[in-house]
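G.,

No rush on this.
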Amino acid sequence: MQSRRYAFSLVELSVASSLTVIVMLAVGGALHLMTRGAAGIQASSQLNTDASIAMARIRRELGAAITVTSLTPTHIEFTHPDVDGDGADDLIIYDWPGVAGGSITRQVSGGTAVPIVENVSEFSLASTCSTVTVPGETSDLTGEVVLASHEAIPPGSSGTFGASPISSSSWRGEGFSVSADDLESYSITRAKVYLKGTGLSGTLYLSIRSASTNTTYEEETLSLSSLSSTEYLWYEFTFSSLTEMNPDTTYSLIARTSTSSTGANFGRDEYTANPAGSDYYKYSTTSGLTWSADNDRDCRYILYGQLKYSAPQEGQTITRKYLTGLTFGLKLTQGSSTAEMTSGTACLNRPEITGL
């Protein structure tokens, strides 16, 4: 007798189809989770690599710091043995703007700030310091002190920051005088001036001159190509022969360049109303042949030197702060992936913190 073969019923086909769909969805979900997990592991691994490289660089350079001029939990400026091959120490700046997702940047000697690590959600610097107090000595000659300066608009005054263009014909500067009871004379050791370059090559000259600007007592130079053209920075000049300056006598700090076009700008403040006792801004557009003064402006400068009194004076107690170590924490975040690490370094040179 011949057997009969039955076809699948509609119910059986429906059940089989449903089971097939469920199995396929399960397999697809598993593959998706595996793919997403692999991508997450890869992203996390990359963040850890980025963080490790950045931390190693910061640790290595901070360990060799010579002096520290600025230090906050998210910013540090320090001098470091030559890194750009010019034979001179370099100023290195590490900075994080404090915004999640931002970058930590590294800047060398006024150059372009370059990101060294991105996707930063946290960055902090914590210092370990030693403090040394040096008692003042009784002498008629002080240590180096600030003789005269203008670094910002004085409290209670209003005004705006501007630029004083410097060229071979446009000379810019500031008048100053130094006075104190029983002061016999003083010397000028160095000056810092607030400058911004314009990208030209040539030479910047900074001189100490008489009040009438007819006599130059000493003049020092700086290459224009070494000036930052993106921001104003403090640049230092050292003097060696200004040892017998007269108290209560007005002198002039004058800047000029070798270029006929503007080679640099001297940062200045222009007051809405001139504050009492301010120094006066000086300028010449005739290569120093004729001069004008303006009491409503001040160039930004700091003048250092030593005071010599007619009788011995008790010196001021000096407190010096040295950086012995730094601990820094770094956290990177990208999507759901994070990398977090803490590291530290011993500062081998015990750099003095001069900017605090």
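When you get to it, here's the other one too:
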Amino acid sequence: MDLDYYEILEITRDADSGAVKKAYRKQALRYHPDRNEGDKEAEEKFKLVNEAYQVLSDPQKRTTYDRYGKAGLDRQGFSHFSDMNYEDIMGDLGSIFESVFGSGFGGFGGSTSRRQNRKYPLDLETSVNIAFNEAIFGCKKEVDFTYKKPCEDCNGTGSSDGKKSTCPECHGKGQIFFRQGFMTYSQTCSHCNGTGVSIDNPCKTCHSKGYVEAKESIKIDIPEGIDGGNRIRVTKKGNIDENGHRGDLYIQVNVGEDEHFVRHNDDVYIEVPVFFTQVALGESIKIPTLRGETDLELPIGANDKQQFVFKNEGIKNVHSGRMGNLIAQIKIKYPKKLSKEQKELLNKLQESFGIESSPHESTFEGVFDKIKSWFS
């Protein structure tokens, strides 16, 4: 039986990202091993809570899961924990546990401290726009982006003289704690913006932020078959911290639409207009494919919106390399008006079919008399 990640987090299927994160924090706190020492069941539930959060907090994975369930994630090549940022998750949990048990609670202190001292996240996200055909066949793109780095004039301190003092409001914690009933809550200190320090002589270059922004441009390879919403990771191209560590750059790909082809996963659809006489005669017509053309054999009497599948004429899966299909859907066109000569020709054609040209007569034979008998 497929896992229901929404049930695990106890949220509805239309929950937004904020509700997902809030529910995750609640369940992670509830089942965390440090609060349930020796409880194997709680340990398993804690793992499921983390798995559910990883999927539902990622828009692409969530879309795949909503459509195809957990099996769909496996088919798309998603490893349940391959992209999980444990530092972010444990940092979130650390702030929760600290608010409940105090700053002396063990297990998360190092991660929380690193997050409080860091002025900005190391990882960076930007986007790139590509055309429909560029996504299908792959391409090279130049991406311009802006990243953060420590201010050289103040060595990243934010202070013109390099001097800092402990924030008098939060006493260096970067968080302000307050009680409501029996619960303790925390929020980022507004006086120091969570840094835990106070600056008396702000740096004029970075305005006490401790960092400046710089621009960079890189060329990236867009892989064949990439879809809109996919992200490309470029290592060591993110923000830079005071110690010289550089994060990663995540580039979200936005794909334009095509006038004729419509993509759904690895399949591509095309609507083929055909005249009613072509369907009646069962003609063979040429239609475009992503890579050229092919023949569509219309069977006599084909239906409107009938679909014809051409195997391996679709899009190459960016993970597995398997080819999708081309689906041609016909749309039967009828004349909006007829000339006198055309009407005569159609009447002669209809008469040539005899009783076959009036199927309604045999279908409704006796029905009218039956309806009359209902009221007699």
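Confidence is low (pLDDT under 50) at residues 79-116. The first strand starts at residue 124 and ends at 130.

Enjoy the weekend,
O.
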